[in-house]
Amino acid sequence: MLGEYRISGRRASEIAASVERGVGSGDLAPGHALPPMRELASLLGVNPNTVAAAYRTLRERGVIETAGRRGSRVRSSPASTARGSLRIEAPPGVRDLGEGNPDPALLPDLDEALAAAARSYARQPGMYGDAPVLPGLAAFARAAMDADGVPAGPLAVASGSLDAIERVLSAHLKPGDAVAVEDPGWGGLLDLVPALGLRAVPVALDEEGPLPGQVERVLRAGARALVVTDRAQNPTGAAVSGRRAAELRTVLAEHPDVLLIEDDHGHAIVDLPLHPLAGVTERWALVRSVAKAYGPDLRLAVLTGDALTVDRVTGRQRLGPGWVSTLLQRTVVHLWTSGAVDAAVIARSYGERRQALIDALDARGVPAYGRSGMNVWVPVSDETGTVARLLHSGWAVAPGARFRMDSPQGVRLTVSPLTATDIAPLADAVAAAVGPVRPVSYG
Ligand SMILES: Cc1ncc(COP(=O)(O)O)c(C=O)c1O
Q: What are the C-alpha distances in Å from 19 to residues 61, 177, 186?
């Protein structure tokens, strides 16, 4: 039922805009059925093909979904509703494991790095016309990538991973193109894809990364790009193994036109080696953010890729922000070159907390996952109920809806705020909250 909201317009773009306005204002609520195409066409006095085109646009923009004979409905989480808004506000007294933030105690002190950046800036201020990437930053980032087996390529700097991924997608894809994404996967990316007018196509994964059979299926079906998280996958903690990387490279080799984007989210916070996929497709990019090891507020990510991709990214960036401030770049160079963080120490700290929680849950008969990074993913059969019951017992966790497309339900627990004494009471609360029906996988 549409209630009072009247869809208007004569052209497909006007009809689509009218529906989107209704969704944005809340008049067309999530789950609401849109009128059948013929009915709306006769109401508006337009050709049914015009309405079909409008619905297609809305589907591609992630505003509505179509379920065969049951017709089209407003998506339960339309692209205009960011998944991030599905967060649980932790009331006073409730421990917040829902935000996915790093442990502040593991982040480096910025005093010295900021002072060093200011001193360097005083000697040579950043000006229009300067190179967009500081040579010192490029050299250090590239050397680290060389050591990890990332194919050679020029370097660009963006304002975080999502900014980098958006720029790479926009460099090659056009509205309506399909992008294969991990499911469950990072909510920011799952929101970004439809926001760019692209279609997200889900690919299931296990602890070793995306399932090759599924990747093959979606690439054969025409997906133009694939985004893979190499390490510390959000929310499951998966990390691409050497064996899985070889399998995925074999699949990708059959699709050399596909744009491959790797998000090495675990860089500097994990102790597992990188097994890059890059090099088998013509167009590729690998992104590394400093957010998790050095602090989310630094807003800086480096990316490398094939020459055309990086050139397009840099060229388009020039017409917007221009470059990422060299004050920030100088700060990051100082943090890197002074060894301000020790990846092994960070990996051990998160690893001990993840493993303690997974073991404690296992002892209570609750399967949970977290091979790398700062999150533990618990498959559940009723995520809304689980989140509510955990909140009642003093723990705020992230509902799986923030990360899921078609994959089974789950909740994400970030271990950053946990100490050893928290593990047993938290595991007790989770075991009680998930109830007796316990799914065993997330694929
Ligand atoms: C999978 C993944 N990659 C990268 C990032 C870092 O993103 P950004 O650099 O945009 O802060 C996050 C943050 O949550 C993430 O979940």
A: 12, 22, 27
Rounded to whole angstroms, how far apart are CA atoms 168 and 176?
16
Q: How far apart are CA 208 and CA 6, in angstroms?
A: 49
pTM: predicted TM-score of the whole model, two decimal places: 0.86
Query: What mean pLDDT is predicted for residues 31-45?
Result: 93
Ligand 1 centre to CA of 22 (Å) is 31
Question: In the numeric block, which tokens belong to residue 38?
Answer: 């013929």
N residues, the chain: 443
Half-sphere exposure of 175 (CA within 13 A, CB side): 10
Q: Which residues pair with residue 180 across a beta bridge?
A: 201, 226
Quick one: pLDDT at residue 1? Answer: 40
Q: Give ligand 1 pocket residues (Cβ under 6 A).
A: 100, 160-162, 186, 229, 234, 263, 265, 289, 291, 296, 301
Question: Which pLDDT tens digit goes with each residue over 104-113?
Answer: 999 999 999 9
Element (H, E) at 210: strand 209-210
Q: Using CA atoms, how far apart are residues 114 and 332, in angstroms rounded to an integer?
A: 9
DSSP character string of 264-298: -TTTTT--SPP---TTSSSSEEEEEESHHHH-GGG
> Which residue's CA is the nearest one to ligand 1's atom 7?
161
**Residue 21 exposed, middle or buried by CB count within 10 Å (0-12, 13-18, 19+):** middle
